[in-house]
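Each letter names a residue; structure tokens follow underneath. Both lines appear below:
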Amino acid sequence: MILARVVGNCVSSVQHPSFDGRTVLVLQPVATDTHTPLGGEFMAVDAAQAGPGDLVLAAREGNTARQVLGAGDEPLHAVVIGVVDEVHLGAPAGGA
């Protein structure tokens, strides 16, 4: 799972049919402080009604994307699976 910030929408006039009717977002992976960029941006199909500025949880693995979207054998690689409200850092549960 990847913590990321939505930095924009992807719009195209010509696309693979598997993207018809789907929203594609541009994501910037971020550190757990929710602001520090980690690596390069990537595109993901939205399954959580996220929008620009939202902090999201994404999966960047084709099988996960296809299962979440019910996409069968379509060539999808990444998916937004949730909008994150808050990030709390602290001691692990049950540990010192």
Residues 62-69 form the longest helix (8 residues).
